[in-house]
Amino acid sequence: MNILILGGGGFIGGFVAKNKIKNNHNVTIVDIKDTKDWYQVHSEANNIVQDASKYEPMDDIFKEGNFDEVYNFACNMGGIGFCELNQFDCGLSIEINTTTAKLAVKYRPKKIFYSSSACVYNETKQTSADSAALKESDAWPAQPDLLYGLEKLFSERLYYYLGKEHGIDVRIARFHNVYGPLGTFEGGREKAPAAAIRKVLEAQKSGNHRVNMWGDGLQTRSFMYIDDCVIGVNRLMESDFTDPINLGSDELISIKGLHDMAADFAGIKVEYDYDLTAPQGVRGRNSDNTLIKQVLGWAPSIPLKVGMEKTFNWIAEQMKDR
Amino acid sequence: MNILILGGGGFIGGFVAKNKIKNNHNVTIVDIKDTKDWYQVHSEANNIVQDASKYEPMDDIFKEGNFDEVYNFACNMGGIGFCELNQFDCGLSIEINTTTAKLAVKYRPKKIFYSSSACVYNETKQTSADSAALKESDAWPAQPDLLYGLEKLFSERLYYYLGKEHGIDVRIARFHNVYGPLGTFEGGREKAPAAAIRKVLEAQKSGNHRVNMWGDGLQTRSFMYIDDCVIGVNRLMESDFTDPINLGSDELISIKGLHDMAADFAGIKVEYDYDLTAPQGVRGRNSDNTLIKQVLGWAPSIPLKVGMEKTFNWIAEQMKDR
């Protein structure tokens, strides 16, 4: 098949591209970043540096590509620090989604995948560390804590009507905190697992085992290893399910527990300096996987400890010569 | 002042433009329609036919215009019939708002007005004909019945962060059903007041006094006469209030009552054929004007009967030679 991957220079898109290439598909990747900044560069793909929100150049790419499937992973995002402090820029990602939707109407790929986020969920359902896991219907009525989440929620509805009014076959997954090797671990856009590992590795190297922690560390999340994410995306595309669906692990952990796990891998004991003014997002968030098990007969299952150890080893390797 | 009016070829934008010209401002109007389709063409303005969602041509217009104030009335909309059946297209209006917001960041007009809508409100608060009037906080948690409303709600938040993160002085009004002379009264995009008047005038002319009504006619709304709308926009711009605010009449009427009023003006008695499958939107909607009275010391006050009679006379004039 001819496959277009928007944001394929990023973390998740890069892994999906790798998987598609392995399965002998003809892959075109579009990403706004210079290829030197792509998380992975696959020489077998057609790699294009382009802002996916620009209609005319994307029209040319769609026209030439004759795509069977389009995967839209492109957006302006990062961890909670980035998303809280750059609400406006996160909101502007909508332009990628409108451009892609309009071109889908014009060029009619067989299927289109839209990557939504657990950030769509109503913040009032996530106010305690042991809040009930979020089921898909908990997005409505809507009150996301970030414009990032409201943008995703609006785009979900836009893609729903892309399906309903224009007959495009749409798949929508709400990703919950995807992590793994080859992800961002420094610079301000990294997410909690990679940030925890980096901080612990820095503590190990410096010998100063005091680690800065955002918040009191008791806030909770679940984290999905990238391999589960790629499998889930593929299974969802092969299904006939067109409504938004959770794609995340339901293994809950506190942010402090996540740091402690990284410290265990490093073989050190750390003490925490709690920064209670740092961005923390909602208090507790987990994925209810009832629906995905029903629909796909499958759910993410890679234990956090397994995925975190692989991620730890990769980040340690990146940082070893510093 | 140098003033830019997006959607100034449309109904509300045309009246705001007229008011600004009357007050000796230097007005530039941008509208996607050919000028022959503009609701009003003001020869004193700089009239530009342009899709306001396109960044590059709009960049040129902003650069040359050196605007003090920007009024964003441009969107793809109509009455309930259009909005229910064209959800995807209504959603795409977001592109106008992102383009305008990005250019506001770049060219920094002193103030920007964004026209939101009562369609942002949660549909579960509008399920009966005598639902309580909607106060501003009733938009959240969110569950608009139309993508049109969700797009407006997302844009309100985007413009909020345009203010907060980029220091642009933003004004946001939630319009409730604006009507008056020079508005659409046929073709599928007309709203209830004009549709009721046209149907009654057609019945009068044909002698067949049976009138088609969407729904059972007991659904309720409030309607704001265009003159109140223009005054409200001006007063809001002169205020320092930056949160979304209702701009609408709180004089509630049923859709059947609206038709009966038109029949009274025509001097005929009509009977109704109720089309219960036609689009009707929410069951009941009214504007709570507590906040606008507090903030502006003013609220829309032109009686529906006064505005409807003027509108009736104008539509009757348009239709008299058919």
Mean pLDDT across all amino acids of chain A: 96
By CATH, the architecture of the largest domain in chain A is named 3-Layer(aba) Sandwich
Structural class of chain A: alpha/beta
Which strand order spans the largest sheet of chain A, edge to edge or round the barrel? 3-2-1-4-5-6-11
And the CATH topology of the largest domain in chain A? Answer: Rossmann fold
Q: In terms of per-residue confidence, which ranges of chain A show pLDDT below 50 for 5 or more consecutive residues?
A: none
**Assigned CATH superfamily of the largest domain in chain A:** NAD(P)-binding Rossmann-like Domain
Oligomerization state of this entry?
homodimer
Helix segment tally of chain A: 11
Largest interface: A-B, 28 and 28 residues
The strand count of chain A comes to 13
Task: Report how far apart the termini of chain A are.
Answer: 43 Å
As for the number of domains of chain A, it is 2
Shape of chain A: globular
Main β-sheet description of chain A: 7 strands, parallel
In percent, how much strand structure appears in the residues of chain A?
15-25%
Secondary-structure map with pairings?
The structure is a homodimer of 322-residue chains.
Chain A: E1 2-6, H1 11-22, E2 26-31, E3 46-49, H2 55-65, E4 69-72, H3 80-85, H4 87-91, H5 94-107, E5 111-117, H6 147-166, E6 169-175, E7 178-179, H7 192-206, E8 210-214, E9 220-222, E10 224-225, H8 226-238, E11 245-247, E12 252-254, H9 255-266, E13 271-275, H10 290-296, H11 304-319
Parallel strand pairs in A: 1-2, 1-4, 2-3, 4-5, 5-6, 6-11, 7-10, 8-13
Antiparallel strand pairs in A: 9-12
Helix pairs in contact in A: 1-8, 2-5, 5-6, 7-9, 7-11
